[in-house]
Amino acid sequence: MIDLGTLGGMSSMANGVSSGGDYVVGSSQDPGGAIAFRWDEERGMVAVEELLSEDDVDVGDWRLQVANDVSTDGRVIIGTMNRAAENRAFLARLGDGTGGGGGGVMDVEEYNRTLYAGAGGIASAGEFLSWLPMNGAHHRPLMMTPDLTGDMCAWASGDFAHHGGTSTGLALAEIGACTDLAGGSVRIGGAVGTTRSWQDLSLGGASRLAGQYVLGEVDWQPDGTPLLLSATGMLGGWQANVGRAYSNGAATAVSSGQTRATGGVIRLRADWLEAVSLGNTTFNPWTSVSLGALHVDGYTESSGPFPALFNAQSMTHVDVRVGLTAVTEFSSQTKLSTTFEVAHRSGTAPGASGQVDGLFAFSLGGGRQSQTWVRAGVELDHKITDNLSLSTSVHLATAGRDPSIAGSLGVKAVF
């Protein structure tokens, strides 16, 4: 039996011993209450807070009260800490013993949230960017854009959107061209665009995605029928940069990483044109089924006391929509389209899995998700000349995977 001593109080209690028996951790009573300690034969009992201080880590107003376990080399200690009435698990990693930094202490609960926010946020933003062209710039088939005089067209459009559930901003800029075939019963088009997203994370962290996509569409209105059938597909790739911030005692640390995301969507849609007419308004019901996929490469963070390695993740989604578009013609130059739709998307939920360097593995989120929401929008089309038109739209959505609010501006020319 060895008397471990105290830290100036009346008692101490050992809770854990390293596998080699060289280190003991526990809790000692000092005049301020319980305080976590580490004991070894060379230095005796030392408060964990003091050991961290030697590595220039300030725990601030947290008090490390209990140490429960310690690694073989004595450098990793886990336990509980307290601040006012708040109790949290901590993980402390000490430097190499030479002083001058290299250590850190994490709030385990908060740290795990940042792991999910970092990798899960990239996956969510990649999903949003994959679907943005389909339900933003191409929320209606090319044949439902303003009719102008000519068999070939070109367009440019821009979208800005915000997803309130994840506080993610989205933007799109696109140019494209189309042509009519088979006497005007078939329209084919193609586009290239750039999209980006931005999301502020907790404690000053940030996630940014930027990249490009290509898109193609084929519309067909069978002769003598009111049906408009369309198939649209897109493929995009984005560079993701994330700065994941987390508490390091009283300070804030940032671990940064970069990765690539690749996504694509295929949509099949059927519109029943002018199913009902009331005055100068026609009602056009429609439905669509889409399949989307996203892959995010694995990546390793750098900097900070607790960088992590994140595994790759792949997601697939099925999106089904039923809607009604009312088109009101105010004049031969101007019309207003009002759309109401119900959307349902099911598939893979965003997640985060991997390892914190030299400490522990994690797997957060993921699994399956299924959401249903409602979206409404208005779009104003105005023919400036017989060969040029301008369109602007606003869409609002309830909680789901579509942006909460989105606005679009586009110009179309024919020749």
List the helices and strands and how they pair.
Layout: E1 12-17, E2 23-30, E3 33-40, E4 44-47, H1 48-54, E5 63-70, E6 76-83, E7 86-93, E8 104-107, H2 108-135, E9 152-163, E10 168-181, E11 186-200, E12 206-220, E13 227-248, E14 251-272, E15 276-278, E16 281-296, E17 299-300, E18 308-310, E19 313-329, E20 334-348, E21 351-356, E22 360-365, E23 368-385, E24 388-397, E25 405-414
| Mean pLDDT metric | 95
- Percentage of helical residues? under 10%
Whole-number radius of gyration?
A: 29 Å
* Spans where pLDDT lies below 50 across 5 or more residues: none
Q: What would the principal axes of the Cα set say about the shape? A: elongated
Order of helix and strand elements from N to C terminus = EEEEHEEEEHEEEEEEEEEEEEEEEEE
Major β-sheet profile: 12 strands, antiparallel, barrel
Any idea what the CATH architecture of the largest domain is? Beta Barrel
Strand adjacency order, main sheet: 9-10-11-12-13-14-16-19-20-23-24-25
The SS-based structural class is mainly beta
How many separate helices? 2
N-C termini distance:
95 Å
Total domains, how many? 2
Instruction: Estimate the strand proportion.
Output: over 45%
Question: According to CATH, what is the class of the largest domain?
Answer: Mainly Beta
Q: What is the CATH H-level superfamily of the largest domain? A: Autotransporter beta-domain
The CATH topology of the largest domain corresponds to: Lipocalin
Q: How many strand units? A: 25
